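PROTEIN DATA CARD
Card holder: Peptidyl-prolyl cis-trans isomerase SurA
Chain length: 456
Origin: Rhabdobacter roseus
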Amino acid sequence: MKVNSLFLRNSLIVGLLLAAWSSFGQDKPGVSIDKIIARVDNYYILNSELEEIYQSYVAGGQKAPDRCQLLESLIINKMLLAKAEIDSVTVEDKMVDNQLDGRMGQMIQRFGSEKNLVEAYGKSIDALKIELRQQLKEQMVVQTMQDKIAGDVKITPNEVRKFFNSIPKDSLPYIPAEVEIGHIVRLGTVTQEQKDKLRNQLYDLKKRAESKEEFSMLAQIYSEDLGSAKNGGDLGFAKRGAMVPTFEGAALALKPGEISDVVESPFGFHLIQLIETRGAEYHARHILLRPDYNRGTDVTEATRYLDSLRTLIQSDTLQFAQAAREHSEDPESADAGGLLQDPESGMTRLPLDASMDPALYFAIDTMKVGSVSPPISYRTSDGRSAMRIIWYKQKTEPHTANLRDDYEKIAQIVLVNKKNNALEEWFKKAEGDVFISVEPEFQKCSIFGLSPVASQ
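Structure generated from the sequence above:
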């Protein structure tokens, strides 16, 4: 069996499944939504899945792989899921719920409000969450299986050099312009009016919970922590140090059954009810209300703070990377000295093309390499209003690939190839552990060299 670009294609396919959900979530006329075209153990692949992923490429302006390649990738995905089930590989529900909250937040932000999202899809938030949750869970299980199979694969500089030297000189790829960009983010502060409003709402809920109403029921209705709300606000057992200090301190000060005063944390405002303690663990539930970051946030202090940092950086009193590590409120980039990274590869050199965030693209379009921008408006991935300063660190002009400038990219290719080999070996062993069948209409496809048979 030869599985070309297995690791890349399988990583891509789970992302495309989510893209298809966001772009093609409603039923489309002329697309079969229930025709089974392949089966892997108890997992089925529908023709609609294949078509939605194909159309995701088209909608994104990309050249789509042929449907045989996409079907093979879907089967790979299902094989990993089936083997995960056999090998008892799972992911914690809490991890899935955290991912779900983030994805739903992005969707709501994209559509402007929950109401707009519901109207666009003709489905309730709960129904949309159920659909997306299963896809996210499968994605995370697949990733866990990939890490289990090939996560320990490493490469050496000699392997990178050997691979590069094996490429004919007239076949070396042409690398487009790329840039390295850093930013320092400061969040806006919630206005006192917003804080008072949320505190009053939570104190009203506390009175209701201390009279006749169940705390868990109130959490289901009012809590904005989407992951725990459906479970009555239940957060399960947490080890000491797992939660933010303000939350944990308030929870551990309670007796079982007691409800806290309103607690402020980086996530919003909470009412906490302690259920029980067990050694170094405690079990609590909560109701979370978040500020309206669109209308209830003041960025005056954030702007002043960043102005001061920029002055220090421009006078060489403070290095940008140090300032980012010590002062940025973007945890994803702060540890990297503020440098923005490609989410797929983790590399800091970003292509200077239409794939870049438009706000970032137009910001650096007027900047000189090495300069730091004045504070500009920024919206975080979870919808918070903020300000940021941007550092245009470096620009690499278009060029033919070489080891000096493109070592990271070439090393990434070598690593992927080596992981593909590890996965290919795994598939040779795993093929016999799962049942695979493909509908005759796809008999022109060579799925791992299998002869297609009718689904059973």
